[in-house]
Write a structure and sequence with these properties.
It contains nine helices and four strands. With 212 residues, the chain is of the alpha+beta class. It has a four-stranded mixed β-sheet with strand order 2-1-3-4, covered by helices on one side. Helix 1 links the parallel strand 1 and strand 2. The longest helix is centred in the middle third of the chain and has 31 residues, at 89-119. Bound molecules: glutathione. Glutathione binds at residues 9-11, 33, 38, 50-53, 69-70, 103.
Length: 212
């Protein structure tokens, strides 16, 4: 059995999209980060960085395995299933390149923009300017890539797309008042968002966890 510790935020949904694409059964353990449940001692045992997502695979090779960091979890599931990431060669590294770009760049920068422009009571103009410009630059990088290839890794849909979709959706919704001008000039991202959003597994993954 696979257990996914997650919340209704972009980093968690990367993994529920992948699990839905694989069609594997999994148990969802919601970790309400609005109520600081990510600091509970039991969660710390599987996620020492106190952030979702984390995953436990009871049937891993060699015994139960817990993994934190969305990129590591996606690579684990891709290697275990043999899907959505080439086993070797250039295609594998193209996908990993864009996966690391997302995990180290697009996600954190949009996250900081969300904090300074939306969630913080105090408005810090320099921080908002800095992260708006960086988000715009990263969306430009993504636009150029998707203008030359159907998916981030190239011809094939991969874990890099699954990682990037939830944060790009946040750019079009939660962050739309800061990023709508940037997105309006990016037709390749719009085409990719549409294609991604039409996948039933992506739709199901984006609805995890069910929060009332
Ligand atoms: N680099 C981590 C980032 C995870 C992350 O930032 N998760 C957020 C939710 S999207 C979180 O748990 N935040 C709670 C907190 O910061 O206390 C990953 O990719 O897994």
């Amino acid at each position: 059995m696979i257990t996914l510790y997650t919340w209704s935020t972009p980093n968690g949904r990367k993994i529920s999209i992948m699990l839905e694409e694989l069609g594997w059964p999994y148990e969802v353990r919601p970790v309400n980060i609005g109520k600081d449940e990510q600091f509970a001692p039991d969660f710390l045992k599987v996620a020492p960085n106190n952030k979702i997502p984390a995953l436990v695979d009871d049937e891993a090779e060699g015994g139960p395995l817990s993994i934190f960091e969305s990129g590591a979890i996606l690579v684990y599931l891709a290697d275990k299933s043999g899907r959505f990431l080439a086993p070797s060669g250039a295609a594998r590294f193209k996908a990993l390149e864009w996966l690391f770009w997302q995990v180290g760049g697009q996600g954190p920068m949009l996250g900081q923009l969300g904090f300074f422009a939306k969630r913080s009571q105090e408005k810090a103009p320099l921080a908002i300017k800095r992260f708006t410009e960086e988000a715009d630059r990263l969306l430009g990088v993504m636009e150029r890539r998707l203008a030359e290839a159907p998916y981030l890794a190239g011809a094939d849909y991969s874990i890099a797309d699954m990682a990037t979709y939830p944060w790009t959706m946040a750019a079009t919704t939660f962050l739309s008042d800061v990023l709508s001008d940037s997105l309006a000039t990016k037709p390749a991202i719009a085409r990719w968002l549409k294609a991604m959003g039409e996948r039933p597994a992506v739709q199901r993954g984006m609805a995890v966890p069910k929060v009332s």
